[in-house]
Amino acid sequence: MIAVVIVGALMSELRHTLSCFLLSFLLAYLFEPLVALMERRLSRMKAIAVLYAGLVFFALFCLIYLIPFLTIRWEALSQTFPLYLQKIKALIAGLRESNRTSYAAEEWRWVFDQLLDNLDAVYSKLGGGVYATASTMAFNLLNLLLSPILVFFMLVYKKDVAATLIGFLPARYRDGILLVGREINRSMTGFIRGQLFISGIVALLVTLALFLLGVDYPLLNGIFAGVTSIIPFIGVILAAVPPLFLAYVKYQTSLILVKVAAAFGVIYFVEGYLVKPLVFRESMDLNPLLTLLMVMALGELMGFWGILLAIPIAASLKIFFSHAVKGTFSLIPPPPEP
């Protein structure tokens, strides 16, 4: 218990360092198969050099085209968001006036007053939110600068580190542990790569749908939908809230809400029943309640990384305990023979 408390405290205090390490480890984990493929014809250092040359070209594309475009759209959203809040306040005030003579008018007036007070609180906290966002972006920028260095060393010394760690395993249980490790590795690799592919598909479809419906900031909403698609069950709800808000403020009709909701329904039907079965051919078969609790717990402890890694960690634990029950390796060494 003391060890758990100490580890939790260290994770909280070193969350930025841990975030940088996890980002580097995830990138190295994703790039390792590509390096191994090129290593069949090149030395490992040359394969890593080719990989980094491709990443440099991709980074230049992002710096020249993608990042400036997203920055402009984000600044435009930050400037117009107070106007959206003012429009919502005007709509709520109009609804409050129209319900003065309706049934339970006092109760409805209290509800509308609470909504207006909450909107005022949100508006007053925008400055603090901007400051917090700027601080977070500064740490993320530092992570982006340090991650390529850490990824390079992880790729270069991967085999040495793996051999060292395998050497610490008890000889009696080494084969069983490596068997379980390889199965966990296949499960985590398939999930992470598949989820990145699915998030990209969702982001593209949402961006296209919102653009055709005339909803403001379709690209930003599409990226947000792609990120929230990693959250099981409730990700679709989180992704749909901003487009519904922007669409209603712009058009002020219930028809646009139906169109946006229908678009998200079709997209997530395609994602859940067509794309995921093709990407995840071997289902992880996790209990939905335990999966949601795992996402909530790790998200509380580790933030974004906890949400991203909750499902593969849960799948890894399931594989580990299933092999422990089968007796692939013994958790408690047997007593010595007399």
Describe the sheet with the most strands. none
What is the terminal-to-terminal distance? 36 Å
The coarse silhouette is: globular
Report low-confidence residues grouped into runs of 5 or more.
127-132
Summary tags:
84% helix, 2 domains, 12 helices, globular, mainly alpha
3D structure, described in words:
Helix content is 84%, strand content 0%. With 338 residues, it is mainly alpha-helical. It has two domains: 157 residues, no CATH class; 159 residues, no CATH class. The longest helix is centred in the N-terminal third of the chain and has 55 residues. About 2% of the residues have low confidence.
Architecture blueprint of SSEs:
Elements: H1 2-13, H2 15-38, H3 44-98, H4 105-124, H5 126-156, H6 158-167, H7 174-213, H8 218-228, H9 235-251, H10 254-279, H11 288-302, H12 304-326
Helix pairs in contact: 2-3, 2-5, 3-4, 7-8, 7-10, 7-12, 8-9, 9-10, 11-12
Quick structural summary:
By secondary structure, this protein is mainly alpha-helical. Helices cover 84% and strands 0% of the residues.
